[in-house]
Design brief:
34% of the residues are buried. Strand 6 and strand 7 (117-122) form a beta hairpin. The protein is built from 18 helices and twelve strands. Helix 4 crosses helix 5 (166-176) and helix 14 (347-358) crosses helix 15. The strands form five sheets. The protein has a three-stranded parallel β-sheet. Strands 4-5-8 form a three-stranded antiparallel β-sheet. The protein is 47% helix and 12% strand. It has 420 residues and is an alpha/beta fold. The protein binds one RNA strand of 77 nucleotides through strand 7, strand 8, helix 4, strand 12 and helix 9.
Length: 420
Amino acid sequence: MVRVRFAPSPTGYLHIGGARTALFNWMYARSQGGKFILRIEDTDRERSQKEYFNEILKSMEWLGLNWDEFYKQSDRFELYRQYAQKLLDEGKAYKDGEAIILKVTKQIVKIYDLIRDEIQVDTETIKDQVLMKSDGSPTYSFACVVDDSLMQISHVIRGEDHISNTPKQIMIYEALGFKIPKFAHLPLILDPEGGRLSKRFGAVAVSEYKKEGFLPEAIVNYLMLLGWSPGNNQEMVLLDSAVKKFSIKKINKAGAAFSMDKLKWLNAQYIKQLPVDQLIDSLIPFLKEKGYIHENYDRKKLEDIVRLYQGRISTLVDFLDWAGFLFIDDFVVDEQAKSKYLSQDHTKTFRLLSERLRQIKDFNTASAEEVFRNLVTELGVKAGDLVHPVRVALTGKEVGPGLFETMVVLGKEKTVQRLS
RNA sequence: GACCCCAUCGUCUAGCCUGGUCAGGACACGAGCUUUUCAAGCUCGCAGCGCGGGUUCAAAUCCCGCUGGGGUCGCCA
């Protein structure tokens, strides 16, 4: 039975590297009909915070990485103490003050890694390992080994940064007489320049991506493509089909640089193929928070607006930026657009257009366009000479969807009003 | 520094195991089409096996070295 775990420490938010580790563990469990366990490694009471704990759980749920079993190391201190005592009794560990330390014997430790094959390490360079700290709490490696054994973890899938911990942990397994699980060390996610992923690189927390308007499906899709490929030149991969094709052996060995461009592209693809109703539902919290809509809003009208922008936004927040002028009257007018198209006085033409539009009975794209084209012909100017200034007057921007579609979603009343 | 891991377009990758297809796809970038603008979409294009040795009739693919990058060296996890 395959049993894997994701073991984050609540000393920080769930970041994209951790999310990918969780994802790969989850995919492996689901692909093998095994169990996915979430274990919170909160042995460091000083640095662990409830806030991080909550954020990690929420982000996991948001991404759709449901777990079958849940544990918290802070509930298990007695267990670690017992096993440390056992090693003490057997003479495999010794005390230094209150701390309990494992004697490291000289040997060549062989690690069998599913991704990298065999790795050999000479323990000559490894010093005796602290198992229990002076304050009575277990060290990371010790708690990790005890838990992985007791929880019958079959495969330890974690970041490459743990490779050098592995020989130390194998010695603990051996001292305890525990069965050694299989290991798979994932390549690390690098920042866009190929360096270490750090706070210096803006958004690292999963919750940050949620705030920026990314869809969980897109994040998950992007993350699985970092170090793994479903084959067949496929880019958009739903979790279900990825699970069917998933194989640890096919995971890459080299680190992967994070590309915001590609993530955004994927997010745009997911937004495009989302049923409008679902897109509206995803947009509503953002619109409410921004104060663009309140409890009572016209869903039909919102649907028209969303349809107009669905194909041109790459994040949910983009929608707020592009369509804000439809919800509020004191929208920001782009300075460049203003100087480019509104530097000369259009008052008279705008008034004329406004008046003609006001008289339309059935205000739709066809009727608005007809009125507009007739006026342009009458004035003897090119359509574009009026289209752009009008767009800026109505939307505050020099770019956007077709002008007449824009007028219709804005509504006759506001269109007329903004032109006069 | 020591130890460990890694190396295909700028980036993510397919191909490597089981040597022999113009090294394929995607993002980004460039051009064109479309068009009232910008996106989107469609078409086309640019661009890569880090270097040096082997092995072989034949090497991106197997072996060695170099270089480069990354990771770890905590009573943090």
